[in-house]
Amino acid sequence: MAKSTIIINKLDNVAVALRDLKKGEVHEGVTLAEDITKGHKFALRDIKKGEEIIKYGSSIAYATADIPAGCHVHTHNVHTNLSENLEYTYNKTECPVKKVTPRKINVYERADGNVGIRNELWIIPTVGCVNGQAKLIADTFKEQYGVEGFDGIYVFTHPYGCSQLGDDHERTKLILQKMVRHPNAGGVLVIGLGCENNQMGPFKEGLGPVDEDRIKFLICQDEEDEIAAGVALVKSIADVIKNDKRVEKDMSCLKVGLKCGGSDGLSGITANPLVGLFSDYIVACGGTTVLTEVPEMFGAEQKLMNRAKDEETFEKVVKLINDFKDYFRRNGQVVYENPSPGNKAGGITTLEDKSLGCTQKSGSSAVQDVVFDDGYVTAKGLNLLNGPGNDMVAVTNLGAAGCHLVLFTTGRGTPFGGFVPTLKIATNNELAAKKSNWIDFNAGAVLDTDFDTQLEKLIDLVVDTVNGKPAKNEINNTRELAIFKTGVTL
Description:
four-stranded antiparallel β-sheet, 29% helix
């Protein structure tokens, strides 16, 4: 019989409903005083006003009123403990790595030593003004030549590249440059207008040396017929990348992004812990995982800091957290204005509740490095990446930092996908069944089986995806690009 409730940690004074529970039912030795919706919490004993609410073995809030045993514990009777300014200390946590046998995968070796899991041809506009031309070039090429011999031609549009100043301009340029060099692209056509801020000359200079057979450039204002010129350039790239073949490697060459969106009360019980086990597996294989969503580390950041491999890395994590808090304050926003309405409806009460669940995607491995806006992921093992929690921006940042694919856990469901394969992992059986056209994997099954069984299935899915099986976002051609913006638009 399936479980109805769960106490996540023996120190907890709340339990979580795994199905809708009715008033008067007895669970965990407590008679429910009211109905409890799936994913929501109830008190295991009488909790006094001002007392800490304990979940995941840590405080997620304090009670704003007396909460009798069996009563609903949520936003109406608790409040966050978090404050704006915190002092951090490094209390190193030992993070042993298990021995595992890395699985074999088939990837594309690139000339710079990186590997790709796709052999796609990308068209990347330097400015939003030529989004339409980029699409016309791709459509015309497909009509004339098709895409046999490689994994498709894709256009990544965006509204930026002009009327931007300072950091926004530099960030747009850098994200697009990183995409041009991403190993999932066998070749790239970079298309500009000619008069934009993001000029082709400085853009090319920032790229450094490139394989001129695989990376081409087009300035529309310089051409009488930019569509014909673009199609000719794409044809020349396609003729080269058609010859690329997969080679066998092991999983130590993989870089996997970790992301959640539309979380619910089961996110920290099923999908996120499962992804955490997968992260530990990849790290044990000698590979790389990357956790982002800095605002969703608030409330759990000290635990991440204690997992830093050394003092220098600890200081980087502190900078990551404090810089993002400063960003909130510069814009007059409350640092802890989270979780979202959808999160709350799903059973997440405070940011501590959300963050302690969210960061479980990182598993238990040591934090090897922190990557800021201008960097790539280079350290093997678990990395932290600067960026917001916004789904589209976070997945863009993960891809730009070098991730080959992203594991995206969700309790509410989303069709979104980035410019790299974005595997959606449902937290519950109902979502997986209802939105099978969006969801790649059902982590809700851990409640019916066990984590070890589902971990093996998740590893199988990742291996298949790396080897060429399309993710649901690829099948649906949901491939989005979103660039973080913080400043003035002219």
